[in-house]
Amino acid sequence: MNVTTLNKTFLDLFSVLPKQAFFAPGRINLIGEHTDYNGGHVFPCAITYGTYAVARKREDALVRLYSKNFPEKGIIEFSLHELDYNAEHAWANYPKGMIRYIIEAGFGIPAGFDCAIEGNIPNGAGLSSSASIELLIGVLVNGLFGLEIPRLQLIKIGKRVENEFIGVNSGIMDQFAVGMGKQDAGILLDCQTLEYQYAPIVMGNHKIIIMNTNKRRELADSKYNERRSECEEALKELQKELPIEALGQLSEQQFEGNKHLISNETIQKRAKHAVYENIRTLKALDELKAGNLEAFGQLMNQSHISLRDDYEVTGIELDSLVEAAWQQPGVLGARMTGAGFGGCAIAIVANSEVESFIANVGAAYQQKIGYRADFYVASIGDGAKEIEMEEVK
After folding, report:
1. Fewer CB within 10 Å: N-end or C-end of the chain?
2. What pLDDT digit, counting tens, does each position of 261-271 carry?
3. Rounded (10°) CA dihedral 41, 297, 185, 276
4. Are 129 and 121 in contact (CB under 8 A)?
5. Beta partners for 159?
6. 291 vs 68: CA distance, rounded Å
């Protein structure tokens, strides 16, 4: 991907050259899965794969959007005066929701704009392409019209789009990681208070490998909302005797001493994952700060086992990838990342073993599942931002 081709696409579509360029990354969550909506901690980072846009202001109220990832949809257009959800507008509902809620937050968008978008995040892989588009449009509108929207407010607007406009009951982690990402650092985020700290990630002689199952997972259609309501049910039962606002406030000891309050065994398992995963995430930060990548890898493995056995969000595709990864030399740890039900897993692999790792895990996966997985060597990059026109790659 480069700006020349995106500029050419824009010129072909709109008969004029764009004026400004923007980028928003995808994200991986290193550890802390399904803890965000349980008031716990997460530990995501932005990656250098993401979504690019070039744009130009218009003089009327029309917004015209085109994605090179969905060329069959053509140019999708709507007016600033007509910002309701429209199923026919498909992917463009994410930008539309952002524009609507930015205006509702009191930021005047005086005119429409033309925009061409291209992303290199695998679609449906669980690397947060939707949050990437949301924050991309946020920084784009900010940059085109000089609105000076505080970054945290943009992040919260992105979450609102996901929850209210699209209808996915997700937490704030994805938008936060995409909006606040920093090169070579993870973000420890307390999802209850939004307090955060950056932690340097020194990979040394290791790489982060993203493993894509190539099984699409649609959050809105998955059991994501079901898991969330199960955790809410567990919280209600615990609150009969405990003064807590979220499962993430519990220690392992407090949970074990009070789990009898949760009458249903399945719901008890869901809550156990939320509590123990939160503790693992805090331990992971300590291990990374101490430069102990091996211990961090062990916590990743424990995280996957909990997601598989207690939270039951992995499935045969993710389990096949992760279990094959565990058997390879030079692997410190591997786990699913994202919501589960397909999507991606990650592994920390010694530089010297990366090629054989990809070959061996790929072969094992194809033999078991019947189609291939894709592999990406990830770099940790910056959050959403305006970029120089020649920076689009």
Report:
1. C
2. 999 999 999 99
3. 0
4. yes
5. none
6. 41
370: left (phi over 0), alpha (psi -120 to 50) or beta: left
Whether the pLDDT of residue 239 is over 50: the answer is: yes
Whole-number pLDDT of residue 220: 43
- Helices 293-309 and 315-326 pack at an angle, to 10 degrees, of 150
Torsion of CA 378, 382, 384, 386, to 10 degrees: -120
Question: Distance between CA 132 and CA 128 in Å, rounded?
Answer: 6
What is d(CA 146, CA 161) in angstroms, rounded to the nearest whole number?
21
Task: Tally Cβ neighbours within 10 Å of residue 137.
Answer: 33
What average pLDDT does the segment 195-221 reach? 85
Least Cα distance to 313 among 333, 339, 335 occurs for 339
| Interatomic CA distance for residues 287 and 295, integer angstroms | 6
Q: Is the CB of residue 142 less than 8 Å from the CB of residue 90?
A: no
Q: Which of 22, 26, 42 is nearest to 34 (CA)?
A: 42
Catalytically active residues, by annotation: 174
Determine the 3-state secondary structure of 57 from DSSP.
strand
What is the DSSP-derived secondary structure letter of residue 223? S
Query: DSSP labels for 96-150?
Result: HHHHHHHHHTT----S-EEEEEEE-SPTTSSS-HHHHHHHHHHHHHHHHHT----
Quote the CA–CA distance of 32 and 189 in Å, as a whole number: 10
Which tokens hold the place of 346? 């990650």
Please report, as a single letter, which amino acid is at residue 216.
R
User: Tell me, what's the pLDDT at 2?
Assistant: 65
Closest CA to 92 of 105, 75, 111: 75
pLDDT digits (tens, 9 = 90+) for 22-76: 999 999 999 999 998 999 999 999 999 999 999 999 999 999 999 999 999 999 9
Computed over its alpha carbons, how large is the radius of gyration of the chain?
21
Say how many Å lie between the first and final Cα of the chain, rounded: 5
Query: How many CA atoms does the CB half-sphere of 38 hold within 13 Å?
Result: 33
Q: Give the helix ranges, DSSP H, for the chain.
A: 3-14, 93-104, 129-145, 151-160, 173-180, 224-238, 252-258, 265-289, 293-309, 315-326, 354-369
